[in-house]
Amino acid sequence: MTDTKKILLDFLDTVLDDRGYKQRDVHINEIKTEGNNYTSALFTVNVKTEEKELKLFAKVAQIGKEMRVIANADNLFRTERFVYNKLVHIYNNLQKHLDEEHKFIFPEFYGVNSEYGKETVILENLNASGYKPHNRLKSMNWDQGRVGVESLARFHALSFKLSQSDPEGFAKIADDMVYILNTASVNENTINQFIEMVENAVKVLKQEHREKVRNFMYRPDLYEKYNKPLSTPVLAHGDYRLSNMLFKRKGHDLNAVVVDYQTLHTGCPVSDLFYFIFTGSDEHFRRLYYNKLINHYYTSLEEALKRLAVDPVEVYPRENFESDMKQLLPYVVQTAVVTLPMVVVEAESMQKWDTEDADFSSLVLKPTALFAQRFTGIINDLIRWGVI
């Protein structure tokens, strides 16, 4: 039995005992992460009791000592505990009067273990109720993009509602969730590996585009606006991509549930929106739908705010939204260089973070043909739009 499976079984006993399920039959199956998770081992859990059958999903911390520091994993696990233990209850209370079709849906939560090295989260298994993941190696289609920004708008709208209905409560959470750039692991070695990461990316570009990317990525103020709020703060998801969404077709409708809240932080709504679009779409999709998707997000945000009795003009007028987009669009380069390689990595090339020798070099991936296509498309867009 693997250590992570033993950790899960021990914690599961506590969770099930607390819920009064004394007689039960438990089956655990470890599932491959397939490039969708770097910090945890993933499991499905089937529990048969006298009263009911539970179909659960679990994540158990699985990360090497050095990578734990580099990834600031202590904070990732702490953030996820906060979301499921506290924020979900706050947000669900704010939207309890809404019809189900207009709510932001969180997966049902069963328990979280905060013990160091054994951090575990147990949730409902959404796959068992018909939700399916998107193939992260494929570009989103319009339906996925539409539903994705609608969910994102509802998520952000809850921040705005909280800041208006409980300013002191929101301010406290916002202070606690300020993004702090992890500098503990920065040294000559990691700097050299960062340079290697940049050079790996630029070598797939046309010669005339390479220097534009280098000039941006080697700016001394590169991280000045990274994950920080601009005009109006919200609790941003921080890793809002197709891989962290599950979809279910219901007749002609498509429903989505968002997962993985380890990177929640006080940030800018637009940062989530850009992250979603540029990590999940190709150049062809953006030529067809980019402006339509941007407008659909803001229209969906207006509608979500009004359903929560919040005036969009008071909390996030269109001019603020446009200003935030203008300021943050160049930083799509940063996301494309640093994050996109991990989003589109082939499963067999995925670097392991759970070994003791794993270090910053685990983040430096060789560019694949898919990365070259996606990255080139992003740079083509930004140059065509006059952004870089």
Automatic annotation (TrEMBL):
Protein name, as recorded: (African queen) hypothetical protein
Signal peptide: none
Domain CHK kinase-like: 121-307
InterPro entries: CHK_kinase-like (IPR015897), EcKL (IPR004119), Kinase-like_dom_sf (IPR011009)
